[in-house]
Design a protein that fits this description.
Layout (H helix, E strand, L loop, with lengths): L13 E5 L2 E4 L4 E4 L2 H4 L8 H13 L10 H14 L5 E5 L2 H16 L3 E5 L8 H5 L16 E4 L4 H9 L3 E7 L12 H14 L2 E5 L23 E4 L10 E5 L18 H16 L2 H17 L6 E5 L2 E5 L5 H9 L3 E2 L1 E3 L3 E4 L7 H14 L1
Parallel strand pairs: 3-13, 5-6, 5-7, 7-8, 8-9
Antiparallel strand pairs: 1-2, 2-3, 4-10, 9-10, 11-12, 12-15, 14-15
Helix pairs in contact: 2-8, 3-8, 6-7, 9-11
The structure holds pyridoxal-5'-phosphate (PLP).
């Protein structure tokens, strides 16, 4: 059987990872400034993560959501404390798309409405509602094009006001920082106005923190730079450090109803062991401090390079925009300099390294990057 060929692949077979480095099958070592697409938060094969998952799978790998699971409670308590959302409730699923899917569904259950406001260049995942609020017609199949979404420019508060005034909008969904869209940060003012408007009209404000959350921006969630408290927050990627986990943080405005949401695998024992280890390491190793310190260094160094058009970002979520396609630069970074990076569109290199990135790896990246340029 062949693999269903939907991914254009780099010709490299990564077989091992440790910290912020990965190795291919020929033993060549690479600096990981990509984190497997913003997934690796506490570094590859962190000993506490390995121990937590190994011990859990040897004890109990899975049981269903029909019995008490105190591991879920422990993750919820710690996440609540570390993120500042202690009064919110937590619903576990398995991926980012599923988190957004459930957020939109819950919003519609609550206010009975069907239309969603999303923003240009947004990416929210590939399940039916998540893809429908994603601004990319190429990945929306006819069966998913159900007319639920109105796309507005990021920052268009008058547009949001006008659409909500029509009375049928259930939710506004927005990324803490647009990732796939090219590291575009909504302004503090826009987020604050959005929250106010949503509060006044009973519209649900959903913050998609799947890429920008779990410490990547230098705060637990990127929207916390704007001092807002959305109705729902979705996260995935970094909270599992590679274990597939999705989470939905839900404000106390919402009352749970038995059977309204559900999942077989969400919040299973192994997932909780993984998320628990991520939170433990984030706290005990002060990863937010590292993100802010190393992120600041990278932003400053990169901003000083002449042929770059713009450097955008917060913490360790950085976009480097050129006035021409970056395909060759990225290719040479990988194959000549052994540095993994991400991409947005054609002209933006995206840096999404593990939050543990040491300063000397950041310095080494800058040296290799300048060499390629
Ligand atoms: C902002 C954002 N939302 C949602 C998703 C979808 O997450 P998943 O691929 O885990 O379904 C992604 C994935 O890249 C993302 O970046």
């Amino acid at each position: 059987m062949n693999l269903y060929d939907v991914y254009p692949l780099f010709d490299v077979n990564i077989v091992k990872g440790k910290g912020c480095r990965v190795w291919d099958d020929k033993g060549a070592e690479y600096i990981d400034l990509y984190g497997g697409h913003a997934v690796i938060s506490i570094g590859h094969a962190h000993p506490r993560y390995v121990k937590a998952i190994s011990e859990q799978v040897a004890t109990l790998g899975f049981y269903s959501n029909s019995v008490i699971n105190t591991l879920q409670q422990r993750v919820a308590e710690k996440l609540g404390r570390m993120s500042g959302y202690e009064d919110y409730s937590l619903f576990f699923i398995n991926s980012g798309a599923e988190a957004n899917e459930n957020a939109l569904k819950l919003s519609s259950f609550k206010n009975g409405k069907k239309r969603v406001i999303a923003f240009r260049k947004a990416f929210h995942g590939r399940t039916s509602l998540a893809v429908e609020v994603t601004d990319n017609p190429k990945i929306i199949a006819p069966i998913n094009a159900n007319g639920h979404t109105t796309y507005l420019e990021l920052g268009d508060i008058d547009g949001v006001r006008e659409e909500i005034a029509k009375g049928d909008v259930t939710a506004v969904i927005i990324e803490g920082i647009q990732g796939v869209g090219g590291i575009r940060i909504p302004t503090v003012e826009f987020l604050q106005q959005l929250q106010q408007l949503c509060n006044e009209t009973g519209t649900t404000l959903i913050l998609d923190e799947i890429q920008s959350g779990c410490g990547r921006s230098g705060r637990f969630f990127a929207h916390q730079w704007a001092g807002i408290t959305p109705d729902m927050i979705t996260q995935a990627k970094g909270i599992g450090n590679g274990f597939p986990i999705g989470m939905l943080l839900i404000s106390p405005k919402f009352q749970p109803v038995y059977g309204e949401l559900g999942t077989t695998f969400g919040g299973n024992h192994l997932a909780c062991a993984a998320a628990g280890a991520v939170l433990d390491v984030m706290e005990d190793e002060n990863l937010l401090d590292n993100v802010n310190r190393v992120g600041k260094y990278l932003m400053e160094e990169l901003s000083g390079i002449e042929c770059i058009k713009e450097v955008r970002g917060r913490g360790l979520m950085i976009g480097i925009e050129f006035d021409r396609p970056i395909k060759e630069i990225r290719h040479r970074l990988l194959f000549e300099e052994h540095v993994f990076t991400g991409v947005s569109g054609t002209n933006v290199i995206r840096l999404l390294p593990p939050l543990t990135l040491p300063m000397n790896d950041a310095e080494e990246f800058v040296r290799r990057f300048k060499k390629v340029l």
